[in-house]
Amino acid sequence: MPTDIKSLTREEIEAQFKALEQPAYRVAQLLDWLYVRRAASWDAMTNLPKSLREKLREHFSLQTHELVRKQGSHDTTQKFLWKLADGAFIESVLIPANPALYGETSDRHTLCISTQVGCAYGCRFCASGLDGWKRNLTPNEIVEQILAVERWHETQPKAAEQELMTAATDSRLVNNIVVMGMGEPLANYDNLLKALKILNAPWGGGIGARKITISTSGLAPQIRMLAKEPMQFRLAISLHGATDETRNKIMPVNRKYPLKELLFACEDYLHEKGRMITLEYILIAGVNDAIAETKPLASLARKLSAKINLIPYNKVDGLAWERPSETVCEAFLTALEKEKVIATLRREKGHDIDAACGQLRLKTEREFAAIEK
Ligand code: SAH
Ligand code: SF4
Prior knowledge:
single chain; alpha/beta; DNA polymerase, domain 1; two-stranded antiparallel sheet; 13 helices; binds S-adenosyl-L-homocysteine; binds iron/sulfur cluster
């Protein structure tokens, strides 16, 4: 399989064009087709000479994700299931701007993207890991999720106010990225970083590093590597337990990198970057929702000057875990606030559309398997 053109940085494309004896301005034209106009085929690139298009077709692939399923409506969270070139399925979730922020063009849409097919980390509550890990996504497969959603959006009828919003700013629908879809992003470190570099570059996606959040289940060595990178990404830690005892029960990764080690790595990140970390905490009934858990949790948050994001658990088909009642969630939040830490409770978007990562893929794969039997 040839390298995909969307896995290459500008410098790499420039080197390739030099070898093909192409003038430098052709690179800018190509990048415009890829990242501004979101071209889905070589033939669409009409201002490139036909002979060049043929050469490019010979040397590189230009993969696009095929939309096989979509859930959700225009003004709510929408979930996309994509089929990749080898037939694997991945998901992306488009989250519209918070209504309270309307008018603020800086927060139009967030896209939650996947980085692997499946996941090897096997957190007990998560649908992504249920069928194990299949493979890493390539840089272009990560990048293409943004472009494919935007391409889809262009085909949709628009409300007048939406037209205005897009016309008044740049051409990007997606201006926030959260790497919280299927897979453990830091286990696909090189491809992730290459993809984010392309999405961040002014010649590529043009999405600010501060608008990109990477979520990890706690791969301490890679958190340290990330701390040394020049780009200022936001970091979110999927904590879900504030003691080794609780965390060991639900997250096997904690046996490899226990809390103390994770904490050191986060302190490193904080020290290098000076950026606030977010601690993600899913509330699961009877597992980690006791008020007694709030003290160690607050203590961790204070050590890291981190804010805590409480997320009521989304039920996964086939798993016995349950979301606590609203009263329990609110009481947990209140107890944290008494500990003088910053905490928010997500009053869910997308609960009704299998929004937790990996669920739509799992459902579709199982349905296909049933059809084939
Ligand atoms: N592997 C990375 C990123 C993908 S998971 C990580 O674990 O951080 C993104 C987030 O969704 C994680 O915080 C994960 O714990 C959470 N999550 C997984 N299953 C969930 C569920 N059923 N309900 C709510 N959150 C879930
Ligand atoms: Fe993998 Fe994250 Fe799911 Fe754990 S929560 S299984 S690390 S995707």
